[in-house]
Design a protein that fits this description.
The complex is a heterodimer of chains A (596) and B (101). With 596 residues, chain A is α/β, with parallel strands linked by helices. Helices cover 49% and strands 8% of the residues of chain A. Helix content of chain B is 76%, strand content 0%. The chains are: A alpha/beta (596), B mainly alpha (101).
């Protein structure tokens, strides 16, 4: 019997591929921001610019006559540049995908080449044993078909690369001159117009999501570039699209306002620029931070950006991780003195929690800081004395939580975390609206708000209301007696340790102390190894620090690892003496939260 | 006599054109900074040409905006100078029409 053995062919070399889809994406993103500036310019030329103030008939007519063609041309420029930018963004996505496929091809090729060499060695000289010959033949045939599969993958990869290059090249070649731009785009309706007109009038995030899903890809891209303020800040729109839109708004503010000499900026422009720079600091902190498990840099997602909100205090929310897809999502609400200028520090808190969640075994997490309400800050600080701002903030937070739930079709785990006055805000959102959060964390809380008598009122089940209070945290002691005292406010709440102690004695909290046994929440350990010996404000700002009990426990809660949460004894308030906190006698620990 | 110019409106519209000039100049700068790095050789040279072309388009639009601002102011000044021959109010507002940025 004759056995014919054909050695497998050597696989073709995988071509060099140095393209970087991420860089290409950045180029597209920059050009999309520029298209947005043209878009605004078109709106100006077609609107405010017409009101010249010239009343002299001949001059006014000449001015108006000159504007019409300019307006049409600028609109065409906006559409052309946007189309090219979108083509580049698409090309960037293609290149990211092609890069992954290229790496697989390289690995396959290397593996196959080694196999071919090994089979060639086995065939020289040919084995004499018939069984061995059969095995060799079978191995050669299998390797040959693997090489053939590799070759066809390589051809497909090359064709896909070429097709993507041709698509983007066509888009670029078609918009190289102003004549081309006018020929193709002058008088063409902006797809954003019809999309905007069909937008639901109310705030219902489910209706918004349905509307967004019903738009064409072209309309969504157009809305993102033409109306980034709307797309970036409307609950129900997916986070990725909001992130794209807010990136445009933020980059445009940085570019446009940065181009105005400082001494020529109006007060409003300066406020907007300062807030944009604060958001940029947050964005940079996130993008420069590293996941302790994967070693990769985080990608920030700008979920909200409104630098002139709340009379210039500004609103911004930014996530570490992908809010659209993460299994575990947390929304972190800061408190006192928070305005947009605090974005960098709040980003650091979100980074720390994300890193700790990853270190504790969370594989799919998005951690967002949310400066989305008018927190007591600056001259507003007196507002801490009352719950109005927390109640109003709770409404906005509930809208945000509803929006996150509406934009996701899957069942993900959502944790609302509030620090300081933010805990009162979270408590109000949960008590007053019952938005769909799974867990609630109240940190250094001055009180859970007057609407909550117990943890059960927050609507997630008392076993899912977690409280972290350092026993020497001055603010965490404010809610001990659970009622607001004008006398305490007069004593100067939060103006210093003395004022704080007086406030505590007078019961200056914002509702029940959630760390107290009567409230019925789950208190977790949150002491610090650098804990002070008397009530102080330093212990109020350590909850998100790495290697603290509080951060480790928060990471477990965010990950849904409830059994890992280290419980703490609850404070109690016997009738015969002042409040007693058993945690004050415990020696604090310092668990590792990031592997360093 | 009535003025043939609304000075406050001229001032604000001209200033808005000045702002458009700054914004479009910023756009031109942004476009200029788009590099060809990351693209394949087949696309990189086209990107280079595209960036050059659009930087020029943005710059031209910026200059047009600046000229609109200057033109509006100078037209208003010319009209007010004529009005000033018969209306003292025109003389009074003339000096308020000036470039702020």
């Amino acid at each position: 019997m004759t056995i014919t053995i054909s050695l497998p062919p050597t696989p073709s070399e995988t071509p060099e591929f140095t393209a970087d889809g991420q860089k290409v994406h950045e180029a597209g993103s920059t050009l999309r921001t520029s298209s947005s500036i043209f878009d605004d310019h078109g709106s100006f030329v077609g609107g405010k610019a017409k009101d010249s103030g010239l009343l002299d008939g001949r001059s006014a007519a000449a001015y108006a006559q000159a504007l019409n063609p300019i307006g049409k041309h600028v609109d065409a420029c906006s559409l052309a540049l946007r189309a090219a930018a979108n083509a580049i963004l698409g090309h960037g996505d293609d290149l990211v995908d092609l890069r992954k496929r290229h790496q697989r091809l390289k690995d396959d090729r290397e593996h196959l080449a080694r196999q071919v060499d090994a089979l060639t060695a086995r065939a020289n000289p040919l084995p004499t044993d018939e069984a061995e010959l059969h095995t060799l033949k079978s191995d050669c045939d299998r390797c040959t078909s693997q090489v053939e599969a590799y070759e066809s993958d390589l051809v497909r990869w090359t064709e896909d690369l070429r097709a993507s290059e041709e698509r983007v090249a066509a888009a670029l070649r078609g918009a190289m001159t102003e004549q081309q731009v006018d020929q193709t785009y002058a008088g063409v309706a902006d797809p954003a117009d019809a999309a905007r007109d069909s937008m639901p009038s109310g705030k219902d995030p489910t209706a918004v999501k349905a509307w967004w899903d019903g738009l064409t890809e072209e309309q969504r891209a157009a809305m993102t570039a033409a109306d980034p303020e709307i797309v970036g800040n409307t609950d129900g729109i997916p986070a990725a699209a909001r992130g794209d839109a807010n990136t445009i708004s933020l980059d445009r503010d940085l570019a446009e306002l940065g181009a105005i000499p400082e001494d020529q900026r109006t007060d409003a422009e300066q406020t907007r620029y300062d807030n944009a720079r604060a958001a940029e600091e947050a964005r940079l902190r996130i993008s420069r931070s590293i996941d302790p498990i994967t070693g990769e840099n985080y990608v920030p997602q700008v979920y909200a950006y409104d630098p002139m909100a709340f009379d210039g205090d500004g609103a911004v929310a930014m996530a570490v991780g992908d809010l659209d897809t993460a299994d575990n999502v947390s929304v972190n609400v800061p408190g006192l003195t928070t305005d947009m200028g605090a974005a960098g520090d709040n980003a650091q808190n979100a980074i720390n929690l994300q890193q700790a969640a990853a270190f504790e075994g969370g594989t799919s997490t998005a951690t967002m800081f949310w400066i989305g309400y008018d927190a007591p800050s600056g001259a507003d600080s007196v507002g801490v004395a009352a719950e109005d701002m927390a109640a109003a903030g709770g409404e906005r937070l509930a809208d945000t939580l509803d929006g996150l739930n509406a934009m996701r079709a899957d069942d993900f785990h959502l944790t609302a975390i509030g620090h300081s006055y933010g805990s009162t805000t979270v408590a109000h959102a949960m008590t007053d609206r019952h938005p769909g959060a799974d867990d609630v964390v109240l940190l250094g809380s001055p009180g859970a708000g007057d609407d909550a008598d117990s943890a059960g009122d927050l609507g997630v089940g008392s076993g899912h209301v977690f409280v972290g209070t350092n026993s020497e945290d001055l603010v965490g002691r404010l809610g001990q007696t659970g009622w607001v005292s004008p006398a305490a406010l007069g004593a100067g709440v939060l103006t210093g340790p003395l004022g704080g102690v007086v406030a505590q004695m007078a019961g200056a909290g914002l509702g029940h102390n959630p760390a107290e046994d009567d409230f019925g929440a789950v208190r977790f350990q949150a002491e610090s190894t650098s804990r002070g010996s008397m009530p102080n404000i330093d212990d109020h700002v350590k909850y998100y620090d790495h290697d603290t009990e509080s951060l480790a426990n928060m990471a477990h809660i965010v990950n849904g690892q409830y059994d890992e949460v280290v419980r703490a004894g609850q404070a109690h308030d016997p009738w015969y003496r002042g409040p007693v906190d058993p945690e004050s006698d415990r020696t604090p620990t310092s668990p590792n939260t990031d592997g360093r | 006599m009535t003025l043939h110019v609304e000075p406050a409106k001229v001032r604000s519209t001209a200033a808005a054109w000045d702002t458009e000039n700054l914004h479009l100049t910023a756009a031109a700068k942004q476009i200029h900074e788009v590099g060809t790095g990351g693209f394949t050789p087949a696309v990189a040279s086209l990107i280079g040409q595209f960036v050059e072309a659009w930087e020029a388009i943005a710059t031209k639009s910026a200059r047009f905006s600046e000229s609109q601002a200057d033109g509006l102011r100078s037209t208003a000044i010319d009209i007010l100078r004529t009005d000033a021959k018969t209306d003292i109010n025109a003389s009074l507002v003339l000096s308020s029409i000036k470039e702020l940025r």
